[in-house]
Amino acid sequence: MSKSGKCHQCETNLDKIAVGLNKKFLGRNITRFYCLTCLSNYLEISVEDLLAKVEDFKAQGCKLFD
Ligand SMILES: [Zn+2]
Fold first, then answer.
1. pLDDT band at 1 (very low <50, low <70, confident <90, very high)
2. What is the pLDDT of residues 17-57, one digit of tens each?
3. Across-strand partners of 6?
């Protein structure tokens, strides 16, 4: 298992939100994590939209962002 503490691409430190979004979009068993900026580029979604999705996931009872 590789560390999940830093972005695979730019080595930015990851927060809980970024890690949760990676798991949501890329799967729970992923070993490479991206920061919000790199993830938004990868998914072709704006960072704003990603953060809006976090609120949606929370509202659905998702525990990844607690
Ligand atoms: Zn990054």
1. very low
2. 999 999 999 999 999 999 999 999 999 999 999 999 999 99
3. 13
CA distance 25 to 4: 15
Asked if residue 4 lies in contact with residue 14, where contact means CB atoms within 8 angstroms, the answer is yes
Interval between CA 61 and ligand 1 midpoint (Å) = 27
In angstroms, what is the span from residue 18 Cα to ligand 1's centroid?
Answer: 10
Tokens standing for 37? 């900026």
Domain containing 47: what range? 1-66
Both tokens of 36, joined, read 């919000």
Report the number of distinct structural domains present in the chain: 1
